[in-house]
Amino acid sequence: MQIIVTGSRGKLGVGVVAALREAGHRVIEFDARGERGPDSVQIDLTDYGQVADAIAGVEERHSGVDAVVHLAAVPAPGIVPDTALITQNLTMTINVFQAARRAGISRIVHASSETLLGIPMAIDPPYVPLDEAAPTRPEFMYAVGKHLEEELARKLVRWDPALRITGLRFSNVMAEEDYAEFPSWQHDTSVRRWNLFGYIDRRDGGQAVLRALENAAPGYDTFIIAAADTVMERPSVELLDAEFPTVPRSRDIVGRETLLDITRARDVLGYAPQHSWRDYV
Ligand SMILES: NC(=O)c1ccc[n+]([C@@H]2O[C@H](COP(=O)([O-])OP(=O)(O)OC[C@H]3O[C@@H](n4cnc5c(N)ncnc54)[C@H](O)[C@@H]3O)[C@@H](O)[C@H]2O)c1
Q1: Which stretches of the chain score pLDDT less than 50?
Q2: Rounded-to-integer distance, Cα 126 and Cα 246, Å
Q3: pLDDT 10s digits, 20-42
Q4: DSSP of 96-119, one letter per residue?
Q5: 202 burial class (0-12, 13-18, 19+ CB within 10 angstroms)?
Q6: Of 90, 131, 138, which is closest to residue 260 (Cα–Cα)?
Q7: 172 in ligand 1 pocket by Cβ < 6 Å?
Q8: Ligand 1 contact via 260 beta carbon (within 6 Å)
Q9: Total domain count, the chain
Q10: Is residue 147 part of a domain?
Q11: Residue 252 lies in a domain
């Protein structure tokens, strides 16, 4: 496939681009930053004209795009003022979804986020492991934006039965060099309580995007994408006893398994995370 990846130069984008290229796909990078290259376009995704034009083609570099992976965003709260954050993120997503639809592209994967599950968990989650059946509970503007992007996609697919849009609710993205910090968290269970001790290796993030492009059914669906384990040495049940003692447990929790449930991503998409921080420290 010829695949446009927005936000390709970002932390997650690097892992996604590598996974797609390794699988033999041609990737065209859309990002505001980055060097000049034959498969790379410098673009401001908040400008619909630029997005529509570039998706239709850039010089002789690409035509006949099969899929769009939309990762570009202001990636966390507190980087820019709240209104700028939600305006920029929604504008980019509206522009990318609309330009892709207008160009007849029927496969779209976009980066949603674990944040809409209730992070920073100041209020306990309804149950653990937390899965996609739990109602979204955004607690800040960044997460509200991710919720609204999911809703936008849900509405768009109603108009076009061939359209496949997949929202991947990534946990906290890690590059290999980030694992050096993990041992410093082990003495205190409260340090990583805020996201139920979750993370995702960016290479596994890339695998999740690949599987979504390959296996998503028509319509809209959303999946939690996390590593198979937590960021902690202690068994997951001990973490729950310490930080979430009264939260109902929906099933037996084994060993150090993730408390952000990836069962649906495994069953529906064929996602199978390969990387654990334990192999790198
Ligand atoms: N990093 C995490 O822990 C995390 C967790 C869950 C979800 N996400 C989501 O994953 C996606 C990627 O996050 P990341 O951590 O790689 O972020 P990042 O900031 O490292 O990368 C984002 C990229 O988007 C580009 N970009 C931003 N605004 C742009 C614009 N107007 N025009 C063109 N390019 C623009 C940036 O240049 C950057 O290269 C985002 O949608 C983010 O919300 C990230």
Answers
A1: none
A2: 10
A3: 999 999 999 999 998 888 899 99
A4: HHHHHHHTT--EEEEEEEGGGGTT
A5: buried
A6: 131
A7: yes
A8: no
A9: 1
A10: yes
A11: no
